[in-house]
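Entry type: protein chain
Record version: 2
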Amino acid sequence: MNEKEIFERIQKLISELLACEKSSIKLNTNLVQELGMDSLDLLDILYRIKLEFNIVTKDGAKEDLFVEYFFKNPTPKTLLYFVKDNIKINMNKKTQVLNFLQNPKSVYQR
């Protein structure tokens, strides 16, 4: 999945939440100042994005840091980087599982 596809899905989620036109949401749009989102909206969009992209974060401290950063920089670009980072992590985990399933003995041959 490339950045354009991720952004389009983020754009769609924001436009659905705020009932606004997708064209009004640019990569660097400040969601608070330009679109009127409040802190609950920011948490809501983050939750929707995690659902949309099947993101499961296990490191609470890392997620707290991201939320704090997102509240200071509430843009689709910030969300895009969050998705890209977490998709990369999830893909690495899936690759490890697939490798294990294809050759389970490899884990024990160290």
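Comment: The mean pLDDT is 86.
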